[in-house]
Here is the input.
Amino acid sequence: MPKDYLWDGSGEPDPEVERLELLLGRLRHNRPAPDFSAPTARRHRLSPGEWFPLRAAAAVVLLLGAAGWVATRDVKITWDVARLEGSPQIGSNHIADTGRLGVGQWLQTDGVSRARMDIGSVGQVEVEPNTRLRMVEGRLSRHRLALDRGVIHAIIWAPPRFFSVETPSAVAVDLGCAYSLEVDASGAGLLRVTSGWVGFEREGRESFVPAGALCATRPGIGPGTPYFEDASEKFRAALAKLDFEPNSRATAPGPAKSTSSLGTVGPTGSMGATRSGHTSTLLPDGRVLITGGMERNGVFFSSAELYDAAIGKFTGTSSMSVKRVGHTATRLPDGRVLVAGGITEPYLSLATAEVYDRASGAWTSTGKLITPRNGQTATLLSSGKVLITGGTASGNEMKRLASAELYDPVTATFTPAGEMTAPRVSHTATLLKDGKVLITGGSTAGRFPTSTVLASAELYDPATGKF
Here is the structure.
């Protein structure tokens, strides 16, 4: 055990000490110690006969401490590996049915082999054929892989940044998600996120990739700009040129500013906090309400901000009652904003909802969703009601929802609105001119990576209340 970490927290952390700190941390006593007056006592010189048992006890304590140090210094965290097809290898050993992968060891699959790894208690990784990867680190609060080549599918239900995958050109950092990652022989990679968010980073260059989006990366450069599955080939080619071709980005000093016949693009003020997974809603007075989200280190926010386009600045406003990520924010006919659902710590879907009043700058709790959900859609109907559809329920299985609900701002209640023809998350919902709502795409039911991205679409008719 590294003695520096044991005494002052510096040096390489020890797995067993970390485990005890996590278990006993909630019992920590933070109040000042009471002031006890030391009693006066007469000095007493110990006789040789009294010294012996004390020396023996001290020797026993030293022996026990040494035994504990020897027992813990060689503790190694390993991951379970199961053969799915063919004959995967750990090092030079073929896996008959199951095996164990330790720090520094390589797992390889040939053209007909597949395997699955249990990443401690934080998630699973499926390994496709012709893949080579290595376990870099395995601790209670950090798990790292290095993907040299091939394809993996990861589903992670741990807190953000507990799991990461290094590639030759970028590092994929879990922010509570499910994703696929592939690396070719040149070291170039492609990240495809199915659920949640993934951070893709290299030497200060970062991309935050949401569900339904992809992000490419190149050796010596790092990650590019994320784009969605339905992006055209022309758009993808333009992004690749912008991100990875030399001299394609502006190199002039100072803030970048581009112009076109359609207008100008330039910098403006910065938010008061770094956020991802937040919402932004245009208010009737032209300001924009920013709510919730989380930092790159996984800290969730209940805070909110207002952007004033007239002066190009963000200012704080009152916070929501609950920290939220992946929620919806819908402007109601009277100018208030309905915020519903989302995820809160520790990664539980929410049923709560609240309304923001721009006049008072205050939040008020309103009715609760019938089903807790995140990743849903919220569409303002012609009647003034809000249609909530789909999303994901709590739990490691990430169950997709087909159910829908209606929020009535007059009664401040949610009521059932039937079910879609298929469970959906990361889908779209668009109000049409005739008052109907078009629902398209998304990811359907099933445990990742067996879930399917949909091409189907359906209509919701408020007159009949049916899909």
Observations:
- DSSP finds four helices and 35 strands in the chain.
- Helices lie at 3-8, 15-24, 48-73, 233-244.
